[in-house]
């Protein structure tokens, strides 16, 4: 199948996600699509797979212009997309997931589905058990099932969006072999969306690089990494003059920590963060850097190892009333045993025993209730302890986790202040937020609702709400959505915090930012943290290798 | 029609729709709509006695609604408000029957505060149960509330037919009347207690101001709008949720106390009279605005009171007032925002653009 | 108690549980498609009232034309009840999907409103005799010892209930449309990507589920608890909603939950007779305590702990059998054209 994109444009208001992209895809070849986060890769692929319609531009399928009404329409025409987050149904069985919307027959043909799953699976070396629930599988296995489904439904042209994020090395190998076979033996076309140079080098015949919605060029593989990096990140990564800075005592220490979630396990992390130091965490999204950050904030509890803030672990405060539920239980048990003894010795009738137990249950319930209320009043979560001990955390989701839609900037200011009076001093809060609005160049008024702010201003608002001085500041994509000038200004403000002795650890998808702002850098790849490198001693190439998953010494 | 005219005229539409539907239902059972509405109005405000009786309904309704302002602000569906009311009524009754009646020397100025205090406490504890079941046990507050409501009703029935049964056998399903000095002072021959009205208004004012102007109120607002963000901003979500439920429950408990100590003079079988549920409707309709809550509560208690006169005069079922109230809230919820009603069909792609 | 009495008791449990089974199945279907219809309590009351009154009226009308017998009027009654149930449910779905309102708010208002409407419109028909579903033992099957008298000495409605429960299971787990419905409730985005018309399906199954809830209401007034009175079956709707959760959103387990509820109720009545000195009202608390207990069991991590302490080879089947997970997209509107 021959596909040609002609001058595809997709505008979201002012934002030009795709700005005039033209590409040609020939059968029997694997194409790489490279670019940073926000470069426009996903948008382009969503257009090609029928999820979104372009603002303008033409898609030619074997020379004929086509338009897709929906992803399923695109699949009928032979274009299938494997999403990074597989679009499957975790609570269903694998066979059910496979059969959903497979055909228009009334009855589900489970034997046929199992046969196809096994058959196609075996052909590509996938081990598929159709009788387990999708949610028990690893991401890689879910991907394999989706791939089999797309192929069974006749996909000739496959788009794989970051397929190796979060899957094991072994699964990656199987996937790559499958891709090669599909192209070589069946003349399918594959687009691999990625920002891992290694993969692209290993697998692709040709690569297209996007940056800020524009096509920066196409290259035949092999092609030097440095050239691709240059296309991805801009001409030269210049390093600004860093103010030499004397770091102080250790603020944050991570000792052999293992952090585990359903998706990913990050193991054996050791690091130390000193006063005034800036540590950048690089890596593809979902490689484990966010888990580390959240564990340091007390939002995730490490399975193993310790995380110490100023030498003390973040455990939260256990309530001094933690024993009350046990007391209630013990009381109840005692009364039941006591009533049973009374009954068996004939001193109580059965009815009296039941009554006695019911009364005991009532009392135990009351103890449990009052105890639970007291516990909720006197305990503290590890995250709130982190905040109290001078920790600041800025999450990536603005209206999801950072700000409360429906509240004004002033109201946020009141909530975020460490000190407050019971009756809110609105004038003081308004003065304070006005100062911060000035300082952070937020376009908005104290009474503006946060959801009415633009994305960049929401970002600035979240940073403006941080208190000072802080012991440690954990940031997720601190300057995402900001232009260069305001990003520089934000970092200047962080610089001032450093001088106050704040230790900073941040995640960024922007390699420029990491190289320019960090003292030291740790790179995450598939849940593994590289050794920590000094920024002054590293290069884009080395980081590129590390991001791609190679461990260089 | 221009946008501005639509915007200003539109709020009338759901109200008219509700009245129209009610009229249809009245005609459906073969009654005269004019006579019915006349009876409804007369019942609510016809005589000064009835006006006071409307006010007597209004006080507990207001107390419940004020409590619900707190819980709804925190994003909690406190369906258990009925049960909390009943528990408050039981606690007050206990004071009246077991303290005031047994020790008649204790003066009213000591008994009444004690009754109110215990009622608030009982309501708060009953609400805490629903809250703890939610926070610690994963039982949604709606289901916890429904079960606890029924348990409270059963408890009343048990008390009335068991330990607190009047000695002569109780022909009207209630306890013996409480001693005079244990009751709230009433206005003349009415069942309206000015003291309770002052209390209700003061509490509404207090809670209304506290929700707007205190740190506590702001925390609840944040919690109700976005639990995750509120937590990350430093709010202890569990603690605040339990606290909000308990305060709401305390106010409902007071409402129950007012019911037994002024509207009735003893603990009865149907002590709540659906007032708790009605208060939920009021707060839904008022959209968490205290002043609107006050006005709508007044209108709704007039309807409630009028309903009983409708029943007396036309033999129509007293649920008529409930129908008007329910339809009003339903239509305002559904059609209140004309922009939603006339929203052009949005495609997924368009919707995604806003992200 | 002798064997015959026990069998008679069990048979009555089955009969008593049938309407609840219908309601639970209906709500399970609605919620599996991703919509919470909280209005059950009111819907069932209105359906019970209208089912009875419509049957009564139509039997009068038919009698004047010389058509006697209860069958036709009862069918018309059930039809009207189903229509009312479907309408109420659709109101919730429409308010959520089209008007983007909170499903819980609409459902709750409807709960109160429909109960009031039922009491209002039914005021002239309280405590009246009327048509009812006729007893219809199944020949041969009724002669099977024990099983026969328990399961096959009922009426058509109760047999139909079993068929509906079984059919819903089959539809959900064995057919393509049923699978799509589950997909829509679990992950509408994925279903959309696969070309499934998410909101269309939601409307359809909400209406079907609502119709079953309506039938359940009429099943009380025309079969199990004959006639109409104020607040005839108040509270049953909430019980049904809780059983849906207890049943883990599966039709057969939901039906079992309904039977279990019936057993508990009968047991309470029996205990009451055995212990007349215990106040009657205390037995009434049982169903609500049971509801709280069951929801607590399902909502807290008690089940998970139970599975963890089970022997290793039993853990997986046990976890699967006890799995209680709501449809993941339950209560969330999906934006689609």
Written description of the protein model:
Chain A is of the alpha/beta class. Helix content of chain A is 39%, strand content 22%. Chain A has 19 helices and 21 strands. In chain A, helix 4 (110-124) packs across helix 5 (139-152). The mean pLDDT of chain A is 87. Chain B is an all-alpha fold and 355 residues long. Chain B folds into 2 domains: 1-31 and 317-343, no CATH class; 53-315, ABC transporter involved in vitamin B12 uptake, BtuC (Orthogonal Bundle). In chain B, 74% of the residues lie in helices and 0% in strands. Chain B contains 16 helices and no strands. Chain B is globular, with a radius of gyration of 22 Å. The model of chain B is unreliable at 346-355 (pLDDT under 50). Helix content of chain C is 72%, strand content 0%. Chain C contains 14 helices and no strands. The model of chain C has no long low-confidence stretch (mean pLDDT 89). Chain C has 337 residues and is mostly helical. Chain C is globular and about 60 Å long.
List keywords for this structure.
heterotrimer; B: 355 residues; mainly alpha; ABC transporter involved in vitamin B12 uptake, BtuC; 16 helices; globular; disordered C terminus; C: 337 residues
- Determine and state the CATH class of the largest domain in chain B: Mainly Alpha
Stretches with pLDDT under 50, minimum 5 residues of chain B: 346-355
Main beta-sheet strand count, sense and barrel state of chain C? none
Give the % helix of chain C: over 70%
Secondary structure tally, helices of chain C? 14
Q: Beta fraction of the residues of chain C?
A: under 5%
What's the architecture of the largest domain in chain B, going by CATH? Orthogonal Bundle
- The coarse overall form of chain C would be globular
Could you give the count of β-strands of chain B?
A: 0
Q: Classify the fold: give the CATH topology of the largest domain in chain B.
A: ABC transporter involved in vitamin B12 uptake, BtuC
Biggest interface, and residues per chain? B-C, 49 and 47 residues
What order do the SSEs of chain C take from the amino end to the carboxyl end, as H and E? HHHHHHHHHHHHHH
Number of helices of chain B: 16
- Protein structure class of chain B: mainly alpha
What letter string, H or E per element, gives the SSE order of chain B? HHHHHHHHHHHHHHHH
The major beta sheet of chain B can be summarized as: none
Shape of chain B: globular
Subunit organisation of the chains: heterotrimer
